[in-house]
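Backbone-to-sequence.
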């Protein structure tokens, strides 16, 4: 049985949404970060960083939301959440799957903290560049790879939901609004929101 270790109001939402999209049976293991449960010795064996989310699947254990999305998409191809390794779209899928933790999240932190970092030094370039590139990609729609929804949409959609819709850290744009409307209309997204709300 797949076990998803999660906590409300955290990055766990990405993996809750993913598991709901997958249709796979899984057990949710509440790891309440408000009580420090993520620092318990048994949990640290699963994720030594003491963060959520984490996932176990038999003998496999991993953390980091994008890695969990990659794992589920590859380990369970019947979910159709990832293009096959031989599919030419696989390259773009991997790029966008890791765009959120590699670019969106640092850009949000840069905006929130108001830290000025030279674009030549910041691995993500600049917050403006990140959201301009994403805007151009999403304008093509309906999903990041075109017609087919994938785990990359879960990661990108979660990042935008957090940055634009929930905390308004990033100014809205028409392409973002349209994409988020498509994401939030998905039954799996709505089930994940209900679970996350408790």
């Amino acid at each position: 049985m797949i076990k998803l270790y999660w906590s409300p109001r955290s990055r766990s939402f990405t993996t809750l949404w993913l598991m709901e999209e997958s249709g796979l049976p899984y057990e949710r293991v509440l790891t309440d970060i408000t009580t420090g449960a993520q620092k318990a010795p048994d949990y640290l064996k699963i994720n030594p960083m003491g963060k959520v989310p984490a996932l176990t699947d038999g003998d496999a254990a991993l953390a980091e939301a994008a890695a969990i999305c990659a794992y589920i998409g590859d380990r369970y191809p019947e979910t159709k959440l990832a293009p096959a390794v031989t599919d030419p779209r696989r390259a773009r899928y991997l790029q966008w799957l890791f765009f959120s933790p590699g670019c969106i999240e640092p850009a949000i932190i840069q905006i929130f903290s108001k830290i000025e970092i030279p674009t030549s030094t910041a691995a993500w370039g600049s917050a403006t560049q990140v959201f301009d590139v994403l805007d151009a990609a999403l304008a093509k729609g309906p999903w990041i790879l075109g017609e087919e929804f994938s785990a990359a949409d879960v990661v990108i959609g979660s990042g935008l939901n957090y940055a634009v819709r929930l905390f308004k850290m990033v100014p809205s744009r028409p392409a973002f609004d349209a994409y988020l409307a498509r994401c939030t209309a998905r039954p799996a997204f709505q089930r994940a929101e209900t679970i996350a709300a408790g």
